[in-house]
Amino acid sequence: MNRFVILSGCSGGGKSTLLAALAARGHATIEEPGRRIVAEEQAGDGKALPWIDLAAFAKRAIARALDDRERASNLPGFVFFDRSLIDAAAALATASGNDAILQSLKTEHRYHNKVFLTPPWPEIYRQDSERRHDLAAAEDEYRRLLEIYPALGYETVVLPMVSVEERVEFILAGIETEK
């Protein structure tokens, strides 16, 4: 069984908060590549920001996600990823119209079979300096991910819109049944 667990889904759906709660319980976590890249780009020349050049951004996210996987291989137990290599490849496929990299992920760089998706949750969605797209764009992304993950052989589990602690328990119960 693969111990790399993906938290994906709608932007602004509570993934980062959920990741922090898992880390507080002692689980290994990997922060979202996209947020880290946006922060770096905003501190630099900004040429690979997703609202400037989505393809350049996605290519950097793919490279970062591959580095994250390598780093995670040295971490104990389950490792929880805020987004994944698949999310980055999906962004590149959207930007370029070429899904070759995405299709290669049917067999390469696999994660845990269950992928936990945060659904659109308008009450908690917030735009900020790193998340400039609106809720409608986030919902479009969510719908794409709902199709992409199963097409690559993953079981998607949509998280309930409950408290952070209840979501943590839901995820842990979901992966513990597969030990």
UniProtKB/TrEMBL annotation:
Q: Which Pfam families match?
A: AAA_28 (PF13521)
Q: Which residues form the NadR/Ttd14 AAA domain?
A: 5-167
Domain of life, per UniProt, equals: Bacteria
The residue ranges crossing the membrane are none
Family annotation (InterPro entries): NadR/Ttd14_AAA_dom (IPR038727), P-loop_NTPase (IPR027417)
Name listed for the protein in its UniProt record: ATPase
